[in-house]
Amino acid sequence: MGLGVLEDKHLSHVPGTALLTDVVGSDNHHHHGGLDTSALRHGKGKDSDVLLVPQPSNSPNDPLNWPLWKKDLMLFFICIDTAVVGAWGPMISPGFVQMASQFGISYNKLNGDLGYGILMIGLSCFVTNSMAVVWGRRPVFLLGNLLLFISSIGGYYSHSFNSLLGFRLVGCIGMSPFEVLVTTTIADIYFVHQRGVRLAAWGLCLSIGVGGGTIISGYIIEDLGWNWTYGICAIMFGVWIVVLFLFCPETAYRRDDSLNTDLGTTEDKAERLAKEDGSKAKGEIESPEVENAEVEAIERAATNVTWSEKKHSYWHDLKIYHGRVSDDPFWKVLTRPFLMLVFPQVLFSFFAYGLTTSWLVVVGSVLAQLFTAPPYNFSVSGVGLVSIASLIGAIVGAFISGPVADWIIKAMARRNGGIYEPEFRLVLVIVTLLLGGMSFFGFGWSLQEQDPWIAPVTFYGLQYFSVGFMSIAVYGYLTDCHRDKAPEAFAAINLRNIYSFGMNYFISDWISTQGPKEVFCIIGGIHVFICLCAIPMYIYGKRCRSWTSRVKFFEKVMQA
Question: Measured between alpha carbons, how far is 134 from 127 in angstroms, rounded to an integer?
Fold first, then answer.
């Protein structure tokens, strides 16, 4: 048993499990037990005992071999774009009361019909994800920005509810790549021990967009009108189409399977690579024709293949389309996410991440209903300012959760004899269980008792702080369990948008009928139950990964 994770009795290597840390012996070689792992690529500095998972190839065009500054710069631009996308969805919510009056419809109908956008995101995720798997990430990111640019222009010139709704649905299709492909891109270019901080950065920018966008949009709606929120977004998306074109190259890359030390079922690939490179290095040392072969064997990438391709030029990287990156037929990739919901790991992630983050969407959609009414009587801009709490919660949570996530997996791997299990990611759920439950119960209770505004606003911020830990835990866990099928797995859990749509459609009437205390206590109870499900997933997760790797039904799903 590895720190509470039950061992599997059927496979010699369970996909997702990987050798992550080793020790440096007196001979200045890296060792794991009796195995010399010096030939495998390691991290630098304080992570010098951390093996790179997956192992990078010898190609300079492998995204894993890109300089860290290039990876981080690309992710920075994508995260800024994600923040604008995050703001685009809820930015008109502070003006819902004003818009309902302008269009002559009820608040609930306005909120419910605009909620079809959430449904559109959930459904279009499958199409945009499949396009990215087959034809690459870059063209799909650019297409998403183009659709958001067109939609924002249309939203600015809309003067009827039907035209606004139509352009919103087009924009929601453009939003869908940012629901699944950012985390996939992180898996493409970063190693296991580097992903936590980057996932936190993405989650932070998304939360800043959702929270900060409504703060700003409240003043825009109050001073200029709700149309101008789309006008400003059109300008930003127009600029960012150019930025992504210039600075965000394709990240999908076909790497030799032997380098994927976290995948496969028949053998420990890290051990095999170390043995092969060790014997090769030994042969080189015995040959008088080669000097310093031992040093070279330690520093070079370990692989059983050799590449002689030249580094692509910057102008080559500017190509929007680089050819197919997968040989799978498009229709098979399109159906695979639905089939992957039968995997225990994916099903757990769907409930844990999907339902938990759906609460945030639901709460954001009713802020105007809750805070423009007595005893608070907030203005439109005042409702927008409520999101300062979510912004602070998201920022603080990201700065804590990201580094803690990476520290936890390295510390637990070292305590586990150097072996990393994806279930180590789920330890973060403890924070979401305690603070998340408290935030939902407290939010509803304080609104029912008509406490001073600071009470429900504080609990609202706590929701964003705690759910950030869940997002990193689930996305990291799912990435490490199914890295080779990560886009499809992420598309599967984003079916939660369909649930968000359903909740969004009747949440307003539910609160009006039964009161916020009962509604959010029910939501809080469901949240606590979902978090507790992480305990059996942690204990039996490795056996589930083994089961889904050796049972023919699941194998057929993965190959579908």
Answer: 11
Which residue is associated with the tokens 């005893």?
375
| Residue entry with tokens 């087959």 | 134
Greater model confidence, 391 or 289: 391
Note the pLDDT tens digit of each residue in 62-95.
999 999 999 999 999 999 999 999 899 888 888 8
* Residues 6+ positions from 391 with CB-CB distance below 8 Å: 207, 208, 211, 212, 215, 461, 464
Helix (H) or strand (E) holding 506: helix 496-514
* CA 192 – CA 412 distance, rounded (Å): 14
What CA–CA distance (Å, rounded) separates 539 from 407? 21
pLDDT digits (tens, 9 = 90+) for 267-284: 555 455 555 555 544 444
Tell me how crowded residue 534 is: count the other CB atoms within 10 A of its CB: 25
CB atoms within 10 A of CB 216: 17
Q: Please tell me the pTM assigned to this model.
A: 0.77
Q: How far apart are CA 152 and CA 158, in angstroms?
A: 10
Cα 265 → chain centroid? 26
240 Cβ neighbours under 8 A, 6+ residues apart: 77, 80, 81, 84, 145
Residue in this structure with the two tokens 């790549």, named with its chain if needed: 177
With 80 as the cut, is the pLDDT of residue 505 above it? Answer: no
Q: Contact 555/434 with Cβ under 8 angstroms? A: no
Angle in degrees, CA 49, 51, 53, rounded to 5: 155
Give Cα separations from 538 to 11, 148, 358, 428, 534 (angstroms): 19, 39, 23, 11, 6
